[in-house]
Write the structure tokens for this entry.
Amino acid sequence: MEKEKGITLIDAFKDFKEEKNIDRPVMMGVLKDVFLTQIAKTYGSADNFDVIVNVDKGTCEIYQNFEVVEEVEDPVSQMTIEDVVEDCGDDDYEIGDTYTKKIPLTAFGRRGILNIRQNLQGRIMDIEKANVFKKYSEKVGELFTGEVYQTWSKEVLILDEDGNELRIPKEEQIPGEHFKKGDNVRAIIKKVEMKNNTTPYIVLSRTSNEFLEKLFEQEVPEILDGLITVKKVARVPGERAKVAVESYDERIDPIGACIGVKGGRILGIVRELRNENIDVLQWTGNAALLIQRALTPAKVSSIDMGKTPADKVKVYMHPDEVKKGVGRNGCNVALAGQLVDREIEVWREAQKDDPEFEEDDVLLSEFANEIDPWVIERLEAIGCDTARSVLALSPADIAKRADLEDETVEDIIKILSAEFED
């Protein structure tokens, strides 16, 4: 029985000793605390006990200190001279001396030893959680590469080299991508949460702007060396992104460096992001010029920045350029707006300069009595500020880009078409 108890306790020590990330002083403190807790539970108090732990050997020695008294009032902390002589055979003790007695582990009983083991394992787990939380909290914003361990509908589970769990929630995955067990995945460490004292919940992201920025750092040595800086990133994950870069060395072309010879550098990033289209442009502090560069390949006729930063930016283009400037589902103009932190509206240049405009087309604002103002605003936001510009699009395209119901689009088309009927 005693041998079995001893093995159980030594195993607990062994488990603890093998935790490489736990500092020795912390280990010693936890082990002593666990034993003192059990002593207090067994004897009612641990005040007169000493615990000596040898982590390397996996042993623990417990000593109980008694005050030698004439008459015992507290048997846990006092002994008479006769009791001392009977216990150790030494008759040199006098009243007032301290007698120290070694307590065998068997004194705790089988249940007591089991409690020590369970408490020790619990404390080990708590320390592990705290270490993992601290480790990854300090790595937030860094690039991570791991292997897919399991996939679910709402998230993907990744394991690091120590077996810690990291997760990519569905909303942090690029739309349309799928993973299978064993795949190597790159993502950015987005955040670390501790929920109800459970295992730290480590969130990875492949949709954040920071992930794209880190990929550029990894693929473009000039960025890593600080010769080129990524000033701003705007992104619709899996569809399109715009990256504004600036060079601190006039001899280095920042756009050419990011793209690489024959597109070698940018292609690696594009493949990583499931063929996401990436536009690299020269950064400038001039917001109007940055918008113009961001709306490429569309040609901008003029830009009205408004009177205050809160005003919408109005970009005027020739009718043939509007579709290119707005982009599919309004993506291009939306990304340009993100680069300058402003809302951008694309307007047909014909509204201002075309002398034949009044004969050929009608402003949507003229239909305010028949079409709700909020609907007109949505149509203008996708570059359709006239009746003919709306009718030039398919109903499905209008519904998707302007986020309108099919029935609403049908009504709009009927109203606008009637304007041009003989």
The chain is about 40% helix and 25% strand. Confidence is low (pLDDT under 50) at residues 1-8. The longest helix spans residues 109-137.
